[in-house]
Amino acid sequence: MRIAIRIQIALLVLGFVFASWVFVPQLYESRTIAQNEATETSVDPANLQLVCPGAFVQVGGSDGTYLGAIERLPSAIVNYHSTADSLLSEPEATLIDFGLFEVQSSDQSTDLLNANQLQEVATSRASGLAGIDCSMPKAAGWFVGAEASVGTESVLILSNPNPTEVTISLEFIAPSGATQDQVTLASGETKLLPLAKYVVADEAFAVRFESNSSEVSATMQSRNTSGLTATGVELSGAIAEPLLQSFFPGAKDLTGGYQLPILRVFNPGDVTASVEVFAQGAGPETSLGVHELEAGEIASIDLEVPIDATGVAVVSTQPVLTAVKNFVVQPKLDFAWILPAQEFSELAVIASPAENSVLSLANPNSSPVNVTIQAGQVYQTFELGVGMMLDAEVPKGSARILSSGKFVANLSVFADAGYSVLTPGNNQNLGSNLEILVR
Predict the structure, then answer these.
(1) What's the CA gap between 110 and 160, in Å, rounded?
(2) E strand residue ranges, 60-204
(3) Which residues pair with 51 in a beta bridge?
């Protein structure tokens, strides 16, 4: 009996081992195959929002003597282009406070929505054309065009287009030292911050902002005077991050040598950055010099741009923040802060707000690209070689840019009231068909 039981137990063990050897690998294999199967899903992008910052900010009243007085001067004019059937939100054609565009679409680009604002400013203390491309809200960003020396004024405009409150951390980095602040904005609220109180009469300083939650609109307003003469106004958007290479189409001497363009560079890193500037145009690019910036250093560099150049490019060994202050003297003294042009692939559509607008293009590639500009019924076709920039006049309306490769672009606006440069953004949120592989 005991022998029979032992034989049965031995047979059961052998059967279990055999079953494990035959079936378990197959089970594991089928499970592995199932786990490695790809699943495709679609993620729609968030609604595309563009914020226009609103009208010019006057500090100190009409004569500048009223301490703490801050008001908006009516009014900024909004221009836009859209291929959407309808917009979820659209501001008035003229603005005092900030205006919000919003559209829902899975196919987002400047063709879907592009907008800008312009304002002719003419007071005893401020004169010029203040313009800006209306941009997507950002969670964080930088400004390098801030100034607080004699004859200059900078105002930070912060707006919250979200349904909830946000807190924004601010850092001001100047040769005299760094300071911090925090600002809380209720839903739909705007705060206007003159920046002189944060620095000690520094000629140039950098500003960084960061929201603790939702993305916000941040804009820098600049005003210059010489004695009792107003010499220009401008609005500039935030720079998202430091870059190794930046292009500034349209940055050139427009004054016949009276006032050279100024390159503002800030090195936010912890090692020295070697920065080289190139003038670009229809011919070979020309080096304008190499500059060494220590960690945390901010510098203003006069650019002797050749008369046949269309703009400049900046290349650095470390990521840096850059902008170019460009001047005009006719029909009146004015200036513009030109930001690093954003890169587009194959297509961009820019709302052209004035008859006297010049579209400046650059080629960021290592090979030539063919570019076609459509403005109304007029087509212009060019070949952009490596290291080349070009200008093309475009009428009021919209300019559609088609290219065989990547390109960057700025729009310069010339008017009796002054001069402004618009840097169009690559207007789109993330979202597409995604393939998910589970292992």
Answers:
(1) 23
(2) 70-73, 76-82, 94-95, 99-103, 113-122, 127-133, 140-146, 152-159, 166-174, 177-185, 190-194
(3) 100, 135
pLDDT digits (tens, 9 = 90+) for 298-324: 999 999 999 999 999 999 999 999 999
Host H or E run for residue 33:
helix 2-35
Q: Which residue from 184, 187, 182 is spatially nearest to 170, judged by alpha carbons?
A: 182
User: What is the identity of the amino acid at 351?
Assistant: A
* Burial bucket for residue 194 (CB in 10 Å: 0-12, 13-18, 19+): middle
Above 70 in pLDDT, residue 340?
A: yes
Residue found under tokens 């004024």: 153
pLDDT tens for each residue of 215-224: 999 999 999 9
**Domain 47-240 coded CATH 2.60.290.11:** yes
SS3 call for 369: strand
Q: Which residue has the higher pLDDT, 54 or 5?
A: 54
Q: What is d(CA 388, CA 398) in angstroms, rounded to the nearest whole number? A: 24
Closest CA to 319 of 379, 244, 371: 244
Q: How far apart are CA 342 and CA 248, in angstroms?
A: 10
Greater pLDDT, 76 or 4: 76
What mean pLDDT value characterizes the chain? Answer: 89
Contacts of 244 (CB under 8 A, 6+ apart): 315, 316, 317, 318, 319
3-state SS class at 89 = strand
Query: For residue 377, what pLDDT band results from cuts at 50, 70 and 90?
Result: confident
Q: Is 161 left (phi over 0), alpha (psi -120 to 50) or beta?
A: alpha
Q: Is the pTM of this model over 0.85?
A: yes
* Residue 259 in tokens: 């006032």
Q: Using DSSP, state whether 431 is helix, strand or coil.
A: coil
Residue 7 has pLDDT above 60, yes or no: no
> According to the model, what pLDDT value does residue 104 have?
94
Looking at residue 201, what is its pLDDT?
A: 76
Give the number of other Cβ atoms within 10 Å of residue 379's Cβ. 11
Burial of 142 (0-12, 13-18, 19+ CB in 10 A): buried
What residues are paired with 424 via a beta bridge?
A: none
DSSP 373-428: EEETTEEEEEEE-TTBEEEEEE-SEEEEEEEEEEEEEEEEEEETTEEEEE------
Q: Residue 37: which pLDDT band, with cuts at 50, 70 and 90? A: low
